[in-house]
Specification:
Number of helices: 9
Strand content: 15-25%
Bound molecules: pyridoxal-5'-phosphate
Low-confidence stretches: none
Order of helices and strands: HEHEHEHEHEHEHEHEH
Mean pLDDT: 95
Helix content: 25-40%
Structural class: alpha/beta
Distance between the termini: 28 Å
Strand order of the largest sheet: 7-6-5-4-3-2-1-8
Radius of gyration: 17 Å
Length: 238
């Protein structure tokens, strides 16, 4: 991994996203950069914020809560929870995040809705889809997305915004695009079936497949390594 300073890597990530959008003939404001800051210190998040970054993604609840406390003065920061979510963590997530990308079962969604504090707007939700049909991966299977989406859309304190996926690694642009295209088509099916839900979000594209994701209409691309550098710290499981 190259050892460049954060402002520069952030600027490069923005340029990479802009170039991908231009190549896809999409408006430059039609996709947002989500900076995935897991395992990285609060000081790096603050630095990225000072350079205009507002949306941050975290995977591990305890680590995220500690950083949020350190960064409490940054009142326009937008926190996205993107990691696996167990029932016993839903309350803190409902209280401390604006978005959750990793909802893949109704039980978790119901808890998030019940536990979302009244003084906060509804929690934005993406359903995580196991788009590559990997046996070991989290995410709802594609043929079960419609049923789950209908139930989640009906929960009062949630706002169903779209779909998220982490496709299996692929070697060519064409191979990368196939599962991302499938996720886009799934979202289109949901949009037709749930015309009242604000289904405007495709959370897909990471450091290795950003260009493919933008070609398939990603609206929220999740970059970690490309912005913050390689992750060396091993995270304790929680
Ligand atoms: C870690 C992570 C990312 C960022 O991955 P990079 O390859 O570092 O860009 C994106 N999405 C999710 C869900 C992640 O866990």
């Amino acid at each position: 991994m190259t050892d460049i300073a954060l402002p520069e890597s952030l600027a490069q990530a923005r340029e990479r996203l802009s170039n991908a959008l231009k190549k896809a003939e999409r408006p430059l404001d039609s996709a947002t950069l989500l900076a995935v800051s897991k395992t990285k210190p609060a000081s790096m998040i603050r630095q990225a914020w000072q350079h205009g970054q507002r949306e941050f993604g975290e995977n591990y609840l305890q680590e995220a809560l500690e950083k949020q406390a350190e960064l409490a003065d940054l009142d326009d920061i937008v926190w996205h929870f993107i990691g696996p979510l167990q029932s016993n963590k839903t309350r803190a997530v409902a209280e401390s995040f604006a978005w959750v990308h990793s909802v893949d079962r109704l039980k978790i969604a119901k808890r998030l809705s019940e536990q979302r504090p009244e003084h906060l707007p509804p929690l934005n939700i993406c359903l995580q889809v196991n788009i590559s049909h990997e046996a070991s991966k989290s995410g709802v299977m594609p043929d079960e997305v419609m049923a789950l989406a209908k139930e989640v859309a009906a929960l009062p304190r949630l706002c169903l915004r779209g779909l998220m996926a982490i496709p299996a690694p692929a070697n060519s642009l064409a191979e990368q695009r196939a599962p991302l295209a499938a996720l886009r088509q799934l979202l289109e099916t949901l949009q037709a079936a749930l015309p009242d839900a604000p289904l405007d979000t495709l959370s897909m594209g990471m450091s290795d497949d950003l260009e493919a994701a933008v070609l398939e209409d990603a609206t929220l691309v999740r970059l970690g390594t490309a912005i913050f550098g390689a992750r060396t710290t091993q995270h304790a499981t929680q």
